[in-house]
Write a structure and sequence with these properties.
Shape: globular
Strand content: under 5%
Number of helices: 12
Helix content: 55-70%
Largest sheet: none
Order of helices and strands: HHHHHHHHHHHH
Structural class: mainly alpha
């Protein structure tokens, strides 16, 4: 009789989660026709979110916010539980991983059901910029957290304090699942191409957030794939909107890959130079037709993200320094209290 090794269980959980993500994305697409009859208000600009009810009720809000708070509390609890126990990275799964995997699957199903019963997501009450900003914070957090391993610019490591890096690694799970869960519940489970690729991305992030303390959680190819998927999402959404700014997303996030992300994959110098040459060739080909006056588009996203890393490092470092000062100012216990 043969038994499944822990390593195969670990890897199979990842592939099963990826399969589930594609299947549930397909389910959302298949059910999307049921929502086409819902009347929505006309689009009124860049800050407007189209997919929300004209007249929300207490029940529609309670369904969306109740589901979100339960999902958020669940994911934070699983991370807290895992970190508060002596868990080590293994090739198998801890029991809390199974809880996280099945729990997140249940909340994904719940949100789809909630959409078809009540429609509205969190978009009724919060800005689209908060949803988008949460994912930007996630991506910037990864850049900071991985600086010590792969560097920030062609392998060069920014002078970020190890203490800052340790704190970012310790807390990153809470930030990442917050961004994923908030964005997931922000949108109703409608079936536009942009929503579908976005939901698939959120499912992958929730899958990653369920595999803590496993080897696949830190697999460099899987984690870089999660980072690069935002390139696919942003580019396809821009193409679908027909606003002509898809190169900003494609070459912006592509620039992050060739400047930073590919240097953590263990690729040889010839391969990295070939990828860089392919990127530069793509830029020359597109902007020779698009117009060189628009070339600044390709640096907007990298500039925001690298500036964000600096700001985030300063905020974390400042917070840690302030915490030390406050601890140092605590009055020493009196002898009577010590007795």
């Amino acid at each position: 009789m043969t038994t499944t090794s822990p390593a195969k269980i670990d890897q199979r959980a990842l592939w099963a989660g990826i399969g589930f993500s594609f299947l549930f994305t397909a389910l959302i697409a298949w059910l999307g026709g049921r929502l086409e009859s819902i009347r929505l208000l006309p689009d009124s600009g860049v800050a407007w979110y189209y997919w929300r009810l004209p007249e929300p009720t207490v029940w529609t809000r309670l369904a969306a916010w109740g589901g979100y708070f339960l999902h958020q509390a669940f994911t934070w609890w699983t991370i807290w539980y895992a970190q508060s126990r002596p868990h080590k990275y293994t090739d198998g799964l801890h029991w809390i991983n199974w809880v996280a995997l099945f729990g997140n699957a249940g909340f994904i199903a719940l949100h789809v059901l909630q959409t078809h019963l009540f429609y509205d997501g969190l978009a009724q009450d919060i800005s689209i910029f908060l949803s988008q900003g949460s994912v930007i914070v996630l991506l910037i957090w990864v850049l900071l957290m991985e600086n010590g391993r792969r560097g920030l610019v062609w392998g060069w490591k920014a002078p970020i304090s190890p203490e800052v890096n340790r704190w970012a690694r310790k807390t990153h799970g809470y930030i990442f699942v917050w961004a994923a869960v908030l964005t997931f519940w922000y949108h109703p489970a409608v079936s536009t191409p942009g929503h579908l690729i976005g939901f698939l991305y959120m499912f992958f992030l929730l899958l990653q957030g369920s595999l803590f303390f496993t080897r696949v959680h830190v697999n460099k190819w899987w984690t870089v794939a999660l980072e690069v998927m935002v390139l696919v999402h942003g580019t396809l959404v821009a193409v679908g909107q027909g606003n002509g700014i898809w190169p900003m997303f494609f070459f912006g996030f592509g620039g992050l890959f060739v400047i930073t992300q590919m240097h953590g994959l263990g690729l040889g110098l010839p391969v990295r130079l070939a990828l860089l040459a392919g990127y530069v060739g793509g830029v020359l080909w597109v902007y020779n037709d698009r117009g060189w006056d628009k070339l600044n588009e390709i640096i907007r996203i990298p500039a925001i993200d690298y500036l964000g890393v600096a700001v985030l490092a300063l905020l974390i470092g400042g917070g840690l320094g302030l915490a030390r000062r406050l601890r140092g100012r605590r009055p020493a216990p009196s002898s009577a209290a010590a007795d």
